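Posting this for the archive.
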Amino acid sequence: MKAFVTLLFLAVLGGAVFWYVTRPGTAGAETYAGLTGDAARGETVFWAGGCASCHAAPGAEGEERLVMAGGTALASSFGTFYAPNISPDPEAGIGGWSVADLGNAMQAGVAPGGAHLYPAFPYTSYTKAEPQDIADLHAFMATLPASDAANKAHDVGFPYTIRRLLGGWKSLFLDDAWVLTNATTDRLARGRYLVEALGHCGECHTPRNRLGGLDTANWLGGAANPAGEGRIPNITPGGLDWSEADIAEYLKSGFTPEFDVAGGEMAEVVQNTAQLSDEDRASIAAYLKAVPAVESAAQ
């Protein structure tokens, strides 16, 4: 009987610790309190953040890329995730969200109802974003067309259906520290912000460990394609010998120095970076030339 009571006590204690460690944590309303969004500045955040690449309907072109109806499939080794409707529709989309709601989703990975969001949504990068940029993005997204498209359920199996486990995952991998610590010029600092935070380039170009966390020791050194075909390239100086001008031009036009053209998912990215200023594209290029070289992609 005593052994049973002891085991019961340990089980209850373990459950309480698990519940505490995995609780959804938010940035707090005070982080976003008093911020007034500017839609014009928010448009830059929108394109830098690549929102249309995932949240526009698959195959959308032209003005339809501004309808954030969702539906894009995001394959991973943990299952297939589907980008949700983030249009201003108050029922199907996020039209009822406050700036704090959007901020906590983007920077803490927590939905307004308190549930953990899957890191297929790159909040591990957006956590480095400035709260004012979140407010500006919120203002811009309110100007976009509404869509009543229903969200598609993610295709994941047990135990990944237990969202509470993501609390433990976040304690390991949700970190707002910069990878490039020595951004010594304004241009480098801007490039770092665009690449590491808003642009979330590392989410695709950096290999992951078995738990899905980014291997920052091989930052931007290339990674397996989660769709299962080929590899996402190494874009450090160890794998990309383009000049800063070459990189900036590619981000504007999609043309490589060899007059090839961006294809696949990168073509989507270029549609976003083409909307940025020449100065921002030059900042991204400067950052990519400054990061430590990874001579061979981690396998």
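Residues 8-20 have pLDDT under 50 and may be disordered. Residues 237 and 290 are 8 Å apart (CA to CA).
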